[in-house]
């Protein structure tokens, strides 16, 4: 029985299955890829044994499992992998942003009924993504110029966009590529409520009045953990 892809466990299930499949397949190959990197079912590979052997390798992997089949796009110059274009230039790999032709760049409108930080962070997060991907400063400047126009088309303020791009550019690319482990507190007690644009700043209210929960020993024992506010999406109603 195959899992529905809307379930949370589906990507993990696919990862486990593909991980086992690739381990078994590669262990049986005499000629192996120089580099083999996989994201769920998308694979980036560097092959150094010639095109004829590469085609045999692709035929082998497509006959290894009766239902799992691969399509291959290979080139001696460059390929697209996920949102990245990888090219070989003077013996070195260069990376640039890749946008599929179907990408409409329909970023969340600033006027959308979402917490303000959601739309406020979009320009910076997108600029930071480009900073990670583009190995060339020229490509970074070109791609962020395109990003700026897409965001302007979605009614973002020019000043917000320019500040976000400037902030992303100020970060060394090596720093953006360093994996950071998010520190989470197990003592956090969430106050979950439904978002509405008319809500007051709950985090400020909690911080300002938190001392009231320390008034008695009983309340202090209950509220000793950190209290934070979490906003969930309101119900969506369709009109027919």
Automatic annotation (TrEMBL):
InterPro entries given in the database record: HTH_animal
Pfam families linked to this entry: HTH_animal
Helix-turn-helix domain segment(s): 107-166
Protein name: Helix-turn-helix domain-containing protein
Organism: Stichopus japonicus (Sea cucumber)
């Amino acid at each position: 029985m195959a899992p529905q892809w809307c379930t949370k466990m589906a990507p993990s299930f696919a990862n486990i299955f593909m991980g086992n499949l690739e381990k078994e397949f590669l262990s049986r190959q005499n000629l192996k890829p120089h580099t083999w990197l996989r994201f769920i079912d998308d694979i980036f590979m560097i092959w150094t044994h010639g095109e004829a052997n590469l085609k045999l390798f692709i035929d082998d992997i497509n006959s290894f499992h009766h239902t799992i089949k691969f399509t291959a796009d290979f080139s001696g110059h460059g390929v697209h992998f996920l949102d990245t274009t990888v090219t070989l230039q003077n013996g070195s790999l260069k990376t640039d942003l890749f946008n599929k032709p179907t990408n409409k760049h329909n970023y969340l409108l600033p006027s959308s009924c979402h917490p303000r930080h959601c739309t406020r962070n979009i320009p910076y997060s997108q600029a930071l993504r480009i900073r990670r991907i583009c190995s060339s400063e020229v490509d970074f400047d070109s791609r962020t110029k395109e990003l700026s126009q897409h965001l302007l088309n979605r009614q973002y303020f020019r000043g917000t966009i320019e500040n976000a791009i400037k902030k992303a550019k100020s970060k060394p690319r090596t720093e953006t590529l360093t994996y950071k482990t998010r520190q989470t507190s197990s003592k956090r007690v969430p106050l979950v409520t439904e978002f509405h644009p008319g809500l007051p700043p709950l985090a400020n209210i909690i911080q300002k009045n938190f001392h009231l929960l320390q008034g008695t020993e009983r309340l202090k024992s209950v509220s000793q953990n950190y209290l934070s506010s979490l906003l969930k999406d309101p119900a969506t109603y369709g009109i027919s």
